[in-house]
C-alpha cells in the first residue's frame, strides 16, 4: 500500500514536470495591459483609444490563427505615479501580464518603467514624452515608440528659432514631462543662438492661465513656449488668443499638440499653429484605411492620435518578435532584444528601427493647423509643411546618456 | 508694479466665478442645510447646456445666459423632489454623500459621451477684442464677467436679505411648521430655492464656457476651491461668500505671480488659518 502510494506520488510529480515543460515549449499565451489615463486630461489622446488600438493589433497580427491566445486588459492610472505602479505590480504578480503599453504622463511612465524592469516584463511606451525613458533612465525592457521631448525640441523648437524666434519664455507643466521638455528645448534654443529670458511653472490640470500669460506677455519674449500638454495646452492657446498674445507680435510655440487638442480648440483659434507629430491619419492610403477602421469602432468616431497609432504599431512589432521567437518566453529582455534586432516597418509610421537604448526612430512631420476655410471635414485639421528624418529628429546614440550603450 | 495691478485684476476675474458658485452653495446650505457636492457638475451642465443650445438649436450666448440656468435649474428641482427631499431631516453627511455620488454619475455620463478634452465655445461677437489699460491688455469678455457676476451676486443677496420673499425663505428654514401655519407652501419654496442655487451654478458655467473649454471635468477642480471659499466666508453666509469669493480670487492671482507652484494650494492654507482663528468662518454665525 505504502509503496503504491510512493509510486503514484513519483509518477504524478514526473507527469507534472513533463507537462510543465511541454507547456512552456509551446507557450503561445500573451497578456497585454493597456495602462493609460482613462478619465483625466489625457484620456482622449490615449485612454480607451489605446486599448482599442491594442485590440486591433491583436486582430491584425494573425497570431490567433497560428494558435496564439492573446488577451488585453486596461487600467486607469489617473495621472498618479503611485496608482500606476500599483496597477503594474498587480498586473505582473496576480494577473500574469507580459507587456504594458501606452502610459501617457511622464511621471507615471518613469515610475512604471522601474516596475517593468524589476519584473522583467516588456514596456512599450507610446504616450509619455520624457526623453529620460531612453536616456538617463533607460531600461533593457523598454521600447519608447512614438515621440519624445528631444524630438519635439529639435523639430518645432528648432524651426521656430530659425524663423526668428530668438527670445523665449516658457509656460511649463510642473512635473517630469514639463521639466524634460523645457530642458530639451532650452538646449536647442541656446545652441541656435537664441535666449531663454524667463518662465513659469504651473500645476498640472490648471484651468485658468491668464496670470501666467500676463507674465509671458510682459516678458516681451518673441516666443512663448508651451511645455505642457492635453487640456493644459488647449486652455493656454484659447486664453492666449483672448489676451491678444498673437496680435501683440508674440508667437505661441505649442511644443506638443495632439489631434484631439486641435479639434477641441477649434480651427478658428488654432489656425496657423506649428507643431510636430510622427503620425497623422490623413498621410496616405494606408494611414487612412487604418484610421477609418479605427474611427468606426471609436464611440465618438475620432481617428487615432499619434499616441494611439504608436500603441498599435508598437504592439504589432512586439508580435513580430514573438512570431520570430516561436513562443512567448515570458522573458522581457529577450523579447525586447528580438524587437530591436528586427527593423520596424508598418503602415502607420513607415520604416524605422529600435535603437539599443530602446528608442524607436522614424520620420517626424512638421504640421500647421489649417484655416477653417481649408478644412473639408470634421477631422481635416493639419497641413504638412515639412519632415525630418528619424536619425536627425531623435537623440543621436553618441549623445545618449543610456547605460545600456556603455556595455 | 504694473504686472502686479494686472494680477490683481485677473484675480478679481477668477474671483467672480468663485463668488457666483459659492453664492449658490451658500444659498443651498443656508436654506436647505444641504452640502451640495453636485454643484461643480451642475456648473459643468450649464456650460454644456450653452453648447447644446448653440450647436443644436442655433441659440447664441445671450439667450443661453437666460435659458441654461432655467433648464439646469429645472433639472435641479427634479433632483430635489426625487432625491434630496427624502434626506432633508437627516445629518449633513447624507446630503454630502448623495450629492457627491450624483456629481460622479453626472460627470461620468458626460465624459462617456463627450470625452475629456472638451468642446469649443466661442466668445460672442459683441464681447470680442480687448482694451489696453496701460498696465495690461484686458479682454472685453473678462471685464464683462466681473461686472455681470457682481450684479447677479448683489441681486441675489438683495432678494434673500431684503425682500419679503427672502424673509419667508429665511423664516421657513428657522421654523417650517410656523411658516406653514401661515399658509405658505414650504416644500415648494425649498424646491425653488434649490433651483435658484443650481441656476446660479449653471449661470457661472455659461459665463465660463467661452473662456475655458466646455469639459466634463471642468467642475471637478473648481468645486473644491469653492467649498473652501464657502467655509472661509462662513457656511451659509450670503455676503460672506460673495466677498470671500472675490478676495480669494485676488489672493490666488497674487500667488500665481509670486510663487506659481503654490497657486493650487494657497486657498486651503488660508482655509486652515481662518478656521484655526475663527471656526465659524469670517462672517459666519455660531451654530
TrEMBL record, chain A:
Record-linked CDD domains: PBP1_SBP-like
Protein name in UniProt: ABC transporter substrate-binding protein
Source species of the chain: Bradyrhizobium oligotrophicum S58
Keywords from the named record: Amino-acid transport, Signal, Transport
Keyword hit for Transport: yes
Source domain of life: Bacteria
A Pfam family assignment: Peripla_BP_6
Family assignment from sequence similarity: Belongs to the leucine-binding protein family.
From TrEMBL, chain B:
Pfam families for this protein: BPD_transp_2 (PF02653)
Principal place of residence: membrane
Family: Belongs to the binding-protein-dependent transport system permease family. LivHM subfamily.
Family annotation (PANTHER family): ABC TRANSPORTER ATP-BINDING PROTEIN, BRANCHED-CHAIN AMINO ACID TRANSPORT SYSTEM PERMEASE PROTEIN LIVH
Matching InterPro entries: ABC_transp_permease (IPR001851), BCAA_transport_permease (IPR052157)
Membrane topology per record: Multi-pass membrane protein
Keywords of this entry: Amino-acid transport, Cell membrane, Membrane, Transmembrane, Transmembrane helix, Transport
Gene Ontology MF annotations: transmembrane transporter activity
Transmembrane intervals: 6-27, 34-54, 60-79, 91-110, 141-160, 190-211, 223-251, 258-277
Position of the signal peptide: none
GO biological process terms held by the UniProt record: amino acid transport
Cellular compartments annotated: Cell membrane
An example Gene Ontology CC term for this record: plasma membrane
Protein name: Putative ABC transporter permease protein
Amino acid at each position: 500500500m505504502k509503496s503504491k502510494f510512493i509510486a503514484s506520488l513519483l509518477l504524478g510529480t514526473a507527469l507534472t514536470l513533463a507537462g510543465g515543460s511541454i507547456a512552456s515549449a509551446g507557450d503561445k499565451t500573451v497578456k497585454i495591459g493597456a495602462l493609460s489615463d482613462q478619465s483625466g486630461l489625457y484620456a482622449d489622446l490615449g485612454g480607451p483609444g489605446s486599448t482599442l488600438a491594442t485590440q486591433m493589433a491583436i486582430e491584425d497580427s494573425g497570431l490567433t490563427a497560428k494558435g496564439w491566445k492573446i488577451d488585453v486588459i486596461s487600467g486607469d492610472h489617473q495621472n498618479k505615479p503611485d496608482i500606476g505602479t500599483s496597477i503594474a505590480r498587480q498586473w505582473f504578480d496576480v494577473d500574469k501580464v507580459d507587456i504594458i503599453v501606452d502610459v501617457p504622463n511622464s511621471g507615471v511612465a518613469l515610475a512604471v518603467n522601474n516596475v517593468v524592469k524589476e519584473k522583467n516584463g516588456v514596456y512599450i511606451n507610446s504616450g509619455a514624452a520624457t526623453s529620460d525613458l531612453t536616456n538617463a533612465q533607460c531600461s533593457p525592457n523598454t521600447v519608447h515608440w512614438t515621440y519624445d521631448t528631444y524630438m519635439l525640441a529639435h523639430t518645432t523648437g528648432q524651426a521656430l528659432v530659425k524663423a526668428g524666434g530668438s527670445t523665449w519664455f516658457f509656460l511649463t507643466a510642473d512635473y517630469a514631462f514639463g521639466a524634460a521638455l523645457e530642458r530639451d528645448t532650452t538646449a536647442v534654443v541656446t545652441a541656435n543662438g537664441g535666449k531663454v529670458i524667463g518662465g513659469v511653472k504651473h500645476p498640472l490640470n490648471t484651468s485658468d492661465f491668464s496670470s501666467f500669460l500676463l507674465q509671458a506677455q510682459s516678458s516681451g519674449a518673441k516666443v512663448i513656449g508651451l511645455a505642457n500638454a492635453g487640456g493644459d495646452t488647449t486652455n493656454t492657446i484659447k486664453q492666449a488668443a483672448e489676451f491678444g498674445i498673437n496680435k501683440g507680435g508674440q508667437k505661441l510655440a505649442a511644443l506638443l499638440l495632439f489631434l484631439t487638442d486641435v479639434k477641441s480648440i477649434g480651427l478658428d483659434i488654432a489656425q496657423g499653429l506649428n507643431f510636430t507629430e510622427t503620425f497623422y491619419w490623413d498621410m496616405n492610403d494606408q494611414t487612412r484605411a487604418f484610421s477609418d477602421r479605427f474611427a468606426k469602432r471609436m464611440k465618438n468616431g475620432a481617428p487615432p492620435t499619434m499616441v494611439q497609432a504608436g500603441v498599435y504599431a508598437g504592439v504589432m512589432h512586439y508580435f513580430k518578435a514573438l512570431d520570430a521567437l516561436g513562443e512567448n518566453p515570458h522573458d522581457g529582455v529577450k523579447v525586447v532584444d528580438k524587437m530591436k534586432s528586427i527593423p520596424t516597418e508598418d503602415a502607420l509610421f513607415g520604416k524605422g528601427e529600435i535603437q539599443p537604448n530602446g528608442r524607436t526612430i522614424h520620420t517626424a512631420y512638421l504640421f500647421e493647423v489649417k484655416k477653417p476655410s481649408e478644412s473639408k471635414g470634421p477631422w481635416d485639421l493639419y497641413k504638412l509643411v515639412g519632415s525630418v528624418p528619424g536619425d536627425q529628429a531623435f537623440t543621436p546614440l553618441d549623445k545618449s546618456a543610456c547605460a545600456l550603450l556603455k556595455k | 508694479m504694473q504686472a502686479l495691478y494686472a494680477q490683481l485684476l485677473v484675480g478679481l476675474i477668477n474671483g467672480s466665478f468663485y463668488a457666483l458658485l459659492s453664492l449658490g452653495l451658500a444659498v443651498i446650505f443656508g436654506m436647505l442645510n444641504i452640502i451640495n457636492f453636485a454643484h461643480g457638475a451642475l456648473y459643468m451642465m450649464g456650460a454644456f447646456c450653452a453648447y447644446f443650445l448653440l450647436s443644436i438649436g442655433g441659440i447664441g450666448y445671450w439667450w443661453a445666459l437666460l435659458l441654461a440656468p432655467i433648464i439646469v435649474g429645472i433639472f435641479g428641482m427634479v433632483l430635489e423632489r426625487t432625491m434630496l427631499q427624502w434626506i432633508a431631516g437627516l445629518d449633513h453627511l447624507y446630503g454630502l454623500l448623495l450629492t457627491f455620488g450624483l456629481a460622479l454619475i453626472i460627470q461620468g455620463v458626460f465624459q462617456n459621451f463627450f470625452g475629456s478634452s472638451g468642446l469649443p465655445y466661442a466668445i460672442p461677437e459683441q464681447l470680442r477684442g480687448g482694451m489696453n489699460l496701460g498696465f495690461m491688455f484686458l479682454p472685453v469678455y473678462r471685464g464683462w464677467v466681473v461686472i455681470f457676476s457682481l450684479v447677479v451676486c448683489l441681486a441675489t443677496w438683495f432678494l434673500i436679505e431684503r425682500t419679503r420673499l427672502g424673509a419667508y425663505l429665511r423664516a421657513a428654514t428657522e421654523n417650517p411648521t410656523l411658516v406653514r401655519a401661515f399658509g405658505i407652501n414650504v416644500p415648494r419654496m425649498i424646491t425653488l430655492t434649490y433651483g435658484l442655487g443650481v441656476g446660479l451654478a449653471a449661470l457661472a458655467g455659461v459665463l465660463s464656457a467661452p473662456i475655458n473649454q466646455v469639459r466634463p471635468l471642468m467642475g471637478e477642480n473648481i468645486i473644491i476651491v469653492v467649498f473652501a471659499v464657502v467655509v472661509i466666508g462662513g457656511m451659509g453666509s450670503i455676503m460672506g461668500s460673495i466677498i470671500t469669493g472675490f478676495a480669494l480670487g485676488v489672493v490666488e492671482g497674487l500667488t500665481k505671480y509670486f510663487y506659481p507652484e503654490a497657486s493650487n494650494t494657497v486657498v486651503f492654507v488660508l482655509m486652515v488659518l481662518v478656521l484655526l482663528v475663527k471656526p465659524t468662518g469670517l462672517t459666519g454665525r455660531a451654530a
